[in-house]
Design goal:
Number of helices: 8
Helix content: 25-40%
Strand content: 15-25%
Radius of gyration: 20 Å
Order of helices and strands: HEHEEEHHHEHEEHEH
Number of strands: 8
Strand order of the largest sheet: 1-2-3-4
Distance between the termini: 54 Å
Structural class: alpha+beta
Shape: globular
Length: about 210
């Protein structure tokens, strides 16, 4: 389907699917004039920024491209006032995450070095047994929080007010700012217990956790 069909779709899911397929089937680079025009129309009609931000006027968009983020995923990028801004298909489709979800993303990004250190210091042995499924971990095993991440995050958030984070245009993601970064980083080091679990086990581990006071 062409980008033009997005305009007439009634649901976020369908709009998201069309935009996703477009990214999948097109190469990284500047969009042609016609497709760029349709992205501007889609942006004007559906794009939803975070709650604390105002929206660009579509007429300010002078160019549109497809780029890859730091994780290798394709996304649209719009050129406004001499700056490229990454633009997710979720937002272009008319949906977005709220402030709380963006904060959680920033918290996850902040502790990524700890996750990487765990992987380095505790190399995966795929024949080890998953503590959740009692089956072998497998080559696609994932690092999991024994105390679920959302519980740790909620405990820290409860004791911190007006937490400041920004959207970093270089990293294409939300970044926690000081003094909150070091506070959360140290809290996570102290409280978290990391472990390997199988991919299937990681889907349900947080549901099986029972907090003991």
């Amino acid at each position: 389907m062409s980008l033009e069909t997005v305009i007439n779709e009634k649901t976020i899911k369908n709009r998201h699917s069309i935009l996703s397929n477009y990214l999948k089937n097109n190469n990284v680079g500047i969009l042609n004039e016609n497709d760029a025009l349709w992205i501007k129309h889609i942006f004007e009609k559906f794009y939803t920024p975070d709650e604390q931000y105002s929206k660009f006027n579509a007429s300010q968009i002078s160019n549109v491209s497809i780029v890859k983020d730091n994780y290798g995923n394709k996304c649209f990028c719009i050129f406004v006032n001499d700056t490229w801004f990454p633009t997710s298909i979720t937002r272009l489709a008319g949906g977005n995450r709220n402030d709380k979800a963006n904060l959680i993303r920033a918290l996850r990004n902040a502790i990524e070095p700890q996750i990487n250190d765990f992987r380095k210091n505790n190399p995966l042995n795929p024949i080890n047994i998953c503590p959740i499924t009692n089956e072998t971990l497998g080559l696609d095993a994932e690092v999991d929080h024994q105390i679920p991440f959302h519980i740790l995050a909620e405990e820290w958030i409860k004791n911190n007010k007006n937490i400041y984070y920004i959207y970093n245009l270089d990293k294409f993601d939300y970044i926690l700012q000081e003094p909150y970064y070091i506070s959360w980083f140290n809290f996570h080091i102290e409280k978290s217990i990391l472990r390997w679990v199988s991919k299937e086990g990681n889907k349900v581990a947080h549901k099986l956790y029972v907090k003991i006071d």
